[in-house]
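Bumping my old thread because nobody answered last time. Still need a sequence for this structure:
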């Protein structure tokens, strides 16, 4: 995964090999969270300061806005 985007000085993100998942990494390349681009859900795997969480969540929501699943739009 070479296409990382910097969130803050200590955090970056990149697409996972799994569909619609974006991993959040710290400066030591530990997976801190997973963001589901389809649903907009963010799951934290490690402890992060509340202020940092808010910054990361806002950044993810503004850069990767939840989109409708294509299978749901075909059914309508």
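Sorry it took so long. Here it is:
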């Amino acid at each position: 995964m070479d296409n990382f985007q910097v969130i803050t000085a200590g955090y970056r993100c990149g697409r996972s090999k799994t569909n619609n998942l974006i991993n959040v990494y710290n400066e030591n390349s530990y997976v801190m969270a997973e963001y589901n681009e389809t649903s907009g859900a963010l799951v934290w795997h490690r402890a992060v300061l509340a202020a940092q969480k808010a910054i990361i969540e806002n950044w993810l929501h503004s850069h990767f806005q939840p989109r409708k699943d294509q299978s749901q739009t075909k059914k309508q």
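The mean pLDDT is 86. Let me know if any region looks off to you.
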